[in-house]
Design brief:
about 260 residues, alpha/beta, TIM Barrel, 6-stranded parallel beta sheet, two-stranded parallel sheet, 9 helices
Length: about 260
């Protein structure tokens, strides 16, 4: 049976308000991830779950932490930075910035993030690198590709990715790990799947002559409504928010399509 999207549930997830709620939701997501891996003949350990906590307040993030979350994804830099400051006591809680980054916010990312999923500008790369060197830090980064070709989305056109990646070794603090995409937001599974197939195929092409020090292993793709399809097509990181934390108070249009989950 063809795997379907769950986009019809977007905005209808029940809110997790206790540690047990979070444990239940995380277990359910891992069960679905494992089933998708089994269908694709993949090792479940080859896929990492990145819970996305955008719009979620500190007290509920602490519950998620108590349930086992140690890495969280955030779209908006200032929101993420504020949460990082508030939860500085949780020394093993790491933050991934998964949304579009303006160069004037790069200084904050260089200070606190361990991962950045949305690199699509050489100017941002240069600015990030400069601030990271000042902080004495490195940063894992993924290159964002606009596989749906929608004008409303950020990311490089697929045909521009090769030249872009070839220029990245100039930025010594950026540890390039792979690619990221947002699939088209559609209930039609095949339209969604095509975006993931395109990213996987592009990754294979870029691997052939990737510059020294540039890794093309990671594929960050798939969210609450489509992560199972993404896993079937090779995702190594899936970004899941509402299916873990619950529906957001803000409408999806506040974050979509330029958001990350």
């Amino acid at each position: 049976m063809e795997t379907q999207t769950q986009h019809a549930l977007h905005g209808h997830y029940s809110t997790a308000n206790t540690v047990e709620d979070f444990k239940h939701n995380l277990a359910a997501i891992h069960q679905r991830m494992n089933a998708a891996c089994q269908r694709a003949g993949r090792d479940p350990n080859s896929v990492r779950l990145l819970p996305v906590s955008k719009t979620v307040p500190e007290e509920r993030i602490r519950l998620a932490y108590a349930a086992g979350c140690r890495q969280l994804g955030e779209n908006k830099v200032q929101e993420a930075y504020r949460k990082w400051e508030l939860m500085a006591d949780l020394k093993d809680l790491h933050w991934s910035v998964i949304g579009h980054l303006q160069s004037n916010k790069a200084k904050l990312v260089a200070r606190f993030a361990t991962e950045f999923h949305a690199l699509d500008s050489l100017h941002v790369a240069e600015t990030l690198d400069r601030h990271l060197q000042a902080e004495g830090r490195g940063l894992d980064v993924l290159v964002q590709v606009n596989t749906s070709q929608e004008e409303s989305k950020y990311g490089l056109a697929p045909e521009a990715a090769h030249d872009f990646v070839q220029k990245l070794p100039a930025f010594k603090s950026l540890k390039v790990r792979g690619l990221m995409t947002l699939a088209i937001f559609s209930a039609e599974a095949e339209r969604v799947r095509k975006c993931f197939v395109l990213l996987r195929n592009l990754r294979e092409q870029l691997r052939q002559d990737a510059p020294a020090g540039i890794e093309m292993n990671a594929l960050s793709m798939g969210m609450s409504g489509d992560f199972e399809i993404a896993i079937e097509e090779g995702a190594t990181i899936v970004r899941v928010g509402q299916a873990i934390f619950g529906a957001r108070a803000l409408p999806d249009t506040y974050y979509w399509p330029k958001g990350g989950e």
